[in-house]
Specification:
The complex is a heterodimer of chains A (about 100) and B (about 250). With about 100 residues, chain A is mainly α. Chain A contains three helices and no strands. The longest helix of chain A is centred in the last third of the chain and has 26 residues. By secondary structure, chain B is mainly α. Helices cover about 75% and strands about 0% of the residues of chain B. The termini of chain B are far apart. The model of chain B has no long low-confidence stretch (mean pLDDT about 90). The chains are: A mainly alpha (about 100), B mainly alpha (about 250). At the A-B interface, α1, α2 and α3 of A face α2, α4 and α10 of B.
């Protein structure tokens, strides 16, 4: 468990919440606007990049991970890593098969 | 300590147990209890990540296999309703975050207000989802015995397909649109189920908050529910572009 000094219960101020809320709304508008542009494969890339930015903002500020203990940060990191393994290893299998759909 | 008089031992125990009523006996300090509970909540959320991760992986692979079908089928979703619902859900995450702040700073009426706002916005989200599901039902786009391929093998019969200039799909590819809608209902349906559970817990929390339960220093429950609610928001943040947006132009 964490050191006592590390666990000063940090109260995130409403100003931060309002800023993140505004950023999330702007990014939502941006991702919808981007979907109306013709960008080929980059439509998917841009949409996912914006989604990742939005999710990161939610995790860091709304879910307080930025102000959390190292244990929480490690747990979130482990979850992300395991998720990437799930998707990555599954795709490795599908991409390397000889059924020619990729 | 075995030779201490009984009276002293009793007094010692009483002194050791001088802690807030919400601290469970198996924790040494309130901080330790808060850390352990927070950790447990995150581990639960990781199982949820893996659960939804499987659905996202299935979507990724099938979309690449049956690309034309997934593109034509996703044109049937309404970007207007999708965007509106994204705004509603993000707002509900904001009100929930404000609720956590109110609990931390012991503002009882503020907390009740924030929880009620989150509750109402959750219901609005489900209502809009209901409108969208109803549209799919009416057009026979719900997978099953009544599924209709009309919009995809004969796009001129469907105003939405016409608007996007969809070309008729060959029969074998058109049948794969059902797979898209299966994933659409599985993913948004599981997401909606999480919302329904969240809304039920919110109702319980509103009653408890009115009695002052979370504004006397013990905020763990509100905080961890906040984590759950924000997690459900994150799932939607990915569902929205993947299901509604990325196929607009193809």
């Amino acid at each position: 468990m964490s050191e006592h000094s590390e666990h000063e219960h940090h109260i995130v101020s409403p100003k931060v919440y309002v800023a993140i809320f505004a950023a999330l709304l702007i990014l939502t508008g941006l991702t919808v606007a981007a979907s109306y542009l013709e960008m080929g494969v980059f439509n998917a890339v841009v949409a996912l990049a914006i989604a990742v930015i939005k999710a990161t903002l939610v995790v860091l500020f709304f879910m307080h991970v930025k102000y959390s203990t190292k244990l929480t940060k490690l747990t979130v990191g482990a979850g992300l890593f395991t998720f990437i393994v799930l998707v990555g290893m599954t795709l490795c299998d599908y991409i390397t098969r000889a059924w020619g759909r990729w | 300590m075995s030779d201490s008089p009984v009276m002293t031992q009793g007094a010692l125990e009483a002194a050791e147990h001088a802690h807030p009523p919400y601290q469970r006996h198996h924790f040494e300090t309130v901080d330790q209890q808060a850390d352990a509970t927070n950790f447990a909540m995150w581990v639960f959320l990781l199982t949820e990540v893996m659960f939804f991760g499987g659905l996202f992986t299935a979507y990724l692979i099938l979309r690449n296999w049956y690309y034309p079908a997934f593109v034509a089928a996703s044109h049937q979703l309404s970007i207007f309703w999708g965007t509106t619902n994204t705004g509603v859900l993000i707002t509900s995450s904001f009100t929930m975050a404000m609720g956590v702040w109110c609990a931390e700073t012991r503002r009882k009426s503020g907390l009740v207000l924030a929880l009620v706002a989150t509750f109402v916005l959750g219901l609005v989200f489900l209502g809009i989802k209901g409108i969208e599901y109803h549209e799919k039902w009416e057009k026979h786009h719900v997978p099953g015995f009544h599924y209709s391929l009309q919009s995809f093998i004969n796009p001129s019969s469907d105003p939405v397909a016409q608007e996007y200039g969809d070309k008729a799909l060959p029969m074998d590819m058109a049948r794969k649109t059902e797979l898209y809608f299966f994933l659409y209902f599985a993913m948004t349906g599981m997401h909606a189920l999480h919302m329904i559970i969240g809304i039920a817990i919110l109702a319980f929390m509103i009653v408890r908050a009115r009695a002052g339960a979370y504004t006397s220093g013990h905020v763990t429950f509100v905080e961890n529910f906040g984590l759950y609610w924000h997690f459900v928001d994150i799932i939607w943040i990915f569902l929205f572009p993947l299901l509604y947006l990325i196929s607009r132009h193809q």
